[in-house]
Amino acid sequence: MIFTVLAVALGGAFGTLARFFIGNWISANWPQHFYGATLIVNLVGCLLIGVLYGLFLLRPEVPLPVRAGLIVGVLGGFTTFSSFSLDTLRLLDSGQAPMAIGYLAVSVVGGLLATWAGLLLTKF
Known about the structure:
This protein is mainly α. The chain has a domain at 2-79. It contains five helices and no strands.
């Protein structure tokens, strides 16, 4: 278990730093497109989680620290949108389309509302 925890922590540091550097680079080069960093990170993260998940399905013998370090650590630090996308696809793949649609709607709308509420809380 300790190796898995360390792999997630190291992967998380790597993913977080990658996101930080991409964000800074885009802000420095295209400040009017500040949102581009989030968009790029989320799309790349979704692509990578799909590739990794597919590879790990084909190769179940890959050790848990490696799987968790890459998916939870690196991609979790890089973007949580990738996990959200994978969870939605897994619900669809398992025949739970209504749950997937509900999860998608609550996540997006709920996330926006929660962010708005948090911002409102700072106005008091």
